Structure formats: structure tokens, C-alpha cells
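PT: before anyone asks, these are the final sequences, not the draft ones from last week. 555 residues across everything. Please model them as a single complex and drop the result in this thread when it's through.
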Amino acid sequence: MELHQVRYFLAVASTLNFTRAAEQCNVTQPALTKGVQKLEQELGGQLIYRERQLTQLTDLGKEVLPMLERTLASAEAVRRRAQEFQRKEVAPLKIGLAPSISVSLVLDPIAEIAKFVPGLHVELRQDTAEKLVELLLEGEINAAMVGDVRDMPVRIDDWSLFEERYVAVLAPTHQLANRLSICIDDLRETVLLERAGCDVAPKIQRLYFPEEPPHLGHCSGHDLHLQHMAAAGFGVFLAPEHMPCIPTLKTIPIEGDPIWREVRLLAVQGRRYSPALDAFVKVARLRDWSVEVPGRGVPHATVPETARTPA
Amino acid sequence: MTTTRTPAANRFQPIDPQPDDAPPMPNQTDKTFAEIRSELLTTFSAADWESYNHLVGWLRDTDAASQALKVGDDAPDFLLPDADGRLHSSEQLRRNGPLVLSFFRGGWCPFCTAELCALQAAKDMFESVGATLAVVTPETRDFPRQLKRSLGLDLKVLSDVDYGVAVSYGVLFRVPDETKAHYSGLGFDLSARHGSPVWMLPIPATYVIDTEGRIRSAFVEPDFTIREEPAQILASLRRAASTC
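LR: through. Structure below.
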């Protein structure tokens, strides 16, 4: 397929009008129609119902639309980067992070894209996953990194980046601090600091504390608050393994590593990707996250097959 | 995910784990790609043959390769992450000499892995004439890293996230349903590998691009079992160098 065909189709999809789409693309209507037809042949079906009064996307059209939008954005990002650079524009990038996602995860990607996106200006926001999804849809942020999310709206693109386990975090003076690993039964006997708005808490409760809820101690939605409270001896809390801890704390794995979550990247479908956002999404989707979680960054549960040449 | 499972360390085995000091795969420099291809074709099952004939026939019928960029065209610029998430721009890659840019389908395709090994073996020769080699895959996440590790590759493996570069070069196509069914049956989930719900693949293609960004040679072959011989690429590089 060719880039101009994709562009023509996206113009028709957004205007639902061949005449206006042709104007938008600066081509004649027959040329536009022909381009869309060629794309339809290649994709193996009609993308658009052409009715006199009503131009509509077919199911196939709706299926391929988000992907073709991303492909076009990706293909055009480089040209737009050059234009931004010539116009000496600031390149804003607003990233939302859920409370259980450390800023340490995005520092290296930001440093990497700063080399290629002149004028990069990053703004970070922290909020709950649900709120970040709202902010994405409102256009207040461009991308978000979150843990497990219930009910993802269809207009959100979401990619799994890596999986990580939860570990126990406590003060070195805590009675469990000398263990090599802590089992769930130990956690039943101790005070657990409560992480407000925690995405894995309901699952932990359901699976490991079905009869009796854990002894919950003080509560905060901020990881740093929990760290300082744990350091003060107020209890143990569970944290995703990538989360950096203040030096006065110990992290101990939970026996059998029962608690896992996926870290996901979110962006809005169909928005024009800025060159900065395009680069961020690309780097995030290729980054070796095991750097953050030494020896643990397992990006997916199934081991891929790589074909080997028979020797 | 809060499920009971074995620790990642035990669960996560790189394909064909290789200790870091293991010698890389023996390269088959004594064989041409065509010879390796013939060997690979002998391993085809009846279903493989059927799927192969169907896909190549479909690509020829739709004339998909005719849209690919040709000699003399301007090569579209790009900015792509490599297997470790480091970005590379086309301007940088062709700054000091011609760029050999090879699109392949993925680490799951034996013809691709054979081609990558052949390119790896020829890499020093390309560099001796001042050229840079980069290979482009539609695969994302850690698939390119796994591939490099399992084949012992020291190549720039760029990931064409969301297919933007393949479409700019006119080598992208949507995988027909029959082919999709066959590959799914073999256990290859291109959605998961590409991070894209719609299955797309590049037609394998090798381009030589000069320092001005102009295409000096183009090898685009709908028959995915046929790749440009490294010796041919080298000849193109030498030709390009003599006509600068």
C-alpha cells in the first residue's frame, strides 16, 4: 500500500465526504476515489459505503482505521519534526503516571528522545489510572503509564510494556526484616500499610485474604508517603519491584512471587501524534525494561519462538 | 496480574538460551542464500507449500510490489528505535557512507533468520566499503532483542513500530486471511509481536541509499523465500561508490 492511499482514506473517514476529502488532500476527486479503491483491493474489502447521501465506514474500515492513523502519524512524524525544528517550536510532551509507576521509568526514554526532538519540554502528572484515562480523552495529557486497568475505553490505544512482581517493603528493624522471603501467612500476622487507589489491592484481597481482611495500617496514595511510614516502623507495604526505595528501607520478595502486574502504555487513538509523542511511544515499546527490574523485566509471559536456520 | 506462577527467573528462558560467552552461530559464508533457501524448502510441509504459494500468488495478483520505491526515488527519512530502545535517524545512518536498509518479516520466519545470518557474515565487507547496514522488522517489545541474542547478531535491528517506514517505502501489505490462519496455526501471533491488532507485513526488500538520500539499488521480491545475495548488495555498493 502507499502512503497517499492511506492519507486519502483517512481524509474520507474524517469528513465522510469525497469532495471535501479531495480538497483536503489537494487532489481531484477521481484521483482520490481511485486511491481509496486501490487500498480497498489491497486490504481485501470495502472500507467505505458510498451512498449518495450517506458515506459511512464499513466494519473493515472501522477495524483498520486506528491502525492506519498510527501508521500515517508514524510515517509523517519525521517530516513534522524537521518543520518544528525550523520553526524553533517548543515540543511539549505531557505524560501521566499512575501512583505505582516511578518517574525512574521515563527518565531514560525522555533523555533518548531529547537527542532527536529539539525543544522537547516534558510535563509529568500523577493521578489514578481512571483519572489519567479521562485526562487522555480530554487531551490534557498525551500518554500515560499505568498498572492494571479495568474498563479501557475503545478510543484508547494500550500496549503492554512489561510485567513485574510485587515485593514487600519494610524497615530493617521490622521483625520480618531478616527473612530471605516473606510468605503470605506472615503478611496475615503483620500490619500492612494501605495503598489508596491501588490497582492490585482488590485482587490481593480476593486471592489471599478471602476470609479475613489484612490488618491495614495507615494509608496513602503516594508511594513516598508509604515509604516514609514504613521506615518509621508503622508497618509493611507491597510495592512493584521497579519502584526505587529510600535507603533506610529493605525490600524482600514474597515467597513464590504470587503477585504480578502488567505495566501498560496508553495513548489516544486518532489524535495527531506530535513527533515527541511518536518518539516516546516508539522508544517505550522497544525499551529493555529489565534494566529497571534487574533480571526480572519479563515483557511477556509466553516465550517467543525464533526460527533458527538449520545448520 | 495476580496469579500464582513460577518465578520469572525460571519461567523466562530466552529462546535457545546461549551463555554470553558462547560463540555466535556458525555463519554459512560458504553457501549462497539461494543454497540455504533450497535446504529450507525441503523442510516445508504440504500446508507450508500451500500457504506459500497462496501468499506469493496473491502478492503477484495484487501487484503489491509495484508500489515499492525504485532506483532514483528519494528514500523517506525515518527515526526508529533499535532493539534496546535507542533511536536512530536515517540522516545519521547515511551521513558517512551509503546505507543498506533491509526489511524483513520477523524472527519467526526461517528465511529471515537465514538472511540475517548471511548479512551478519557480510557486515564487515559492507563496512570495508564505507557502508552502514541496518535491518528493519515490524516486531516490537523484546522480540528484536531475543532475535539478536538467539542468533548472536551484531546488527542494527530497527523496529518499524506501527509500520510507518514500510508504508513510506511502499512495501507494506495486509496479511490475507488464509496466510493469517496458517501462521496462527504455527503459533505465530503477529498482533502480539507487532503491538497492532491488524496483521501487516513488509515484502522483504533491500535498498541501497546514498549519502544524499537517493535510492541506488532496490531489491523487492514478493516471493519471501528469495532474498538479495550479500554479494549482490556489495556489487551495488561498489557501483554506487564508483558513480558518486
